[in-house]
Amino acid sequence: MIIVLKKSATEEEIEHVSEKIKSLGLSVHISKGEERTLIGAIGDEAKLAETPLEALPGVEKVMPIVKPYKLVSKEMSDGPTIIDINGVKVGGNKIQVIAGPCSVETQDLLTDCAKKVKESGATLLRGGAFKPRTSPYAFQGLGEEGLKYLKKASEETGLPVVTELMDPRDMDLICEYADVIQIGARNMQNFRLLMEVGKTKKAVLLKRGMASTVKEFLMSAEYIASQGNTNIILCERGMRTFETSVRNILDYSAVPVLKEETHLPVFIDPSHAAGRWDFVPALSKAAVAVGADGLLIEVHSDPENALCDGAQSLKPTKFSTLMGELAKIAEAVGRTI
Questions:
Q1: What b/e readout covers 185-205, taking b as 16+ CB neighbours within 10 angstroms?
Q2: I need a labelling partner for 241 at 20 to 30 A (CA). Which of 16, 39, 159, 205 fits?
Q3: How far apart are CA 164 and CA 168, in angstroms?
Q4: Is the distance from CB of 274 to CB of 303 less than 8 angstroms?
């Protein structure tokens, strides 16, 4: 249930409505927009059936939420959510670009890459310290050492850090070094992990599972939001099909569909979708044109010798060229990059 408050509603009236809902055994989620304050009543709505919420001071109207994802639904916000990550505004008119290597390898390589992607216009730095790999014999990441490398590169460039969390036992460690917690495609439905990141205040980059529907994707986001954290960035990264010419088929239709269903920002990861660097520019341009709020692009200074996913990584010079091309497309659709 959504309770829409009047523009003139006072803090005391908002608190009174909230306490009334809590007294009935439901949880409360408050969303304050520029025009309106919305209160979401989450739980057994049957308990509200005989409670005239419209009669409470400050209440304008009451509306049911019919979708299974309540907190992340578009109805639960007075407008698109904008997430502030150390001054980087995700979800606004500016398209944000997260760039960096798939895996953290050495301090020098990472810092060099971070400086170059920032110079080209990237606003956040990505890098994996813990890597989910299909083979147990493949490079699994440097762990805490890699996190320290990311932190140092961040301090030298000012770029906030995005890195993946795979195990709830590493939560405190990741939170110490990272600004954005990434939940990979393989863990999209690891509900215990989702609930743990929901208890933090860190921004979460949630990737869509390789065989997940939009509804399942949003229900996973709901798990995070249900624990109090709505700083969620949705990331489409391609789906597994019968096609073998690319690693995954990138579902561009997910962008407008998600924009219709949720208030959360939507990113696209063209690198994991393509599986090869030469397709990344075209997929990135299409992502900007279709309305994505950001991109997650893999960049490596020496992709031929990369320990992970070198084939899909752009060299810094190629990334710089791409950023210039993306700026023109962004301008054409009324945005900036």
A1: bebbebeebbebbbebebbbb
A2: 205
A3: 11
A4: no
CATH code where residue 23 lies: 3.30.70.1140
Name the phi and psi angles at 284, rounded to 5. -65, -40
Secondary structure of residue 294 in the 3-state scheme: strand
CB neighbour list of residue 65: distance below 8 Å, 6 or more residues apart: 1, 2, 40, 73, 75, 76
pLDDT tens profile 163-185:
999 999 999 999 999 999 999 99
Question: Residue 313 and residue 11: Cα distance in Å, rounded?
Answer: 50
- Which region among 60-69, 181-190, 256-265, 268-277 has the lowest average model confidence (pLDDT)? 60-69
Q: Which of 320, 253, 268 is nearest to 113 (CA)?
A: 320
Contacts of residue 267, Cβ cutoff 8 Å, sequence gap at least 6:
98, 205, 233, 234, 235, 236, 292, 293, 294, 295, 296
Distance CA 246, CA 115 (A): 30
CA 161 vs CA 278, 280, 313: distances in Å:
26, 22, 18
Q: Does residue 293 sit in helix, strand or coil?
A: coil
The total of structural domains in the chain comes to: 2
Rg, C-alpha atoms of the chain = 21
Q: Distance (Å, rounded) from C-alpha 311 to C-alpha 151?
A: 26
d(CA 91, CA 94): 8
Tell me the C-alpha distance between 337 and 19, whole Å: 43
Domain that holds residue 46: 2-64
Dump pLDDT digits (tens) for 224-249. 999 999 999 999 999 999 998 889 99
Same domain for 269 and 153?
yes
Helical residues (DSSP H) of the chain, grouped into ranges: 11-23, 107-120, 144-157, 171-177, 191-198, 214-225, 254-261, 270-274, 280-290, 316-332
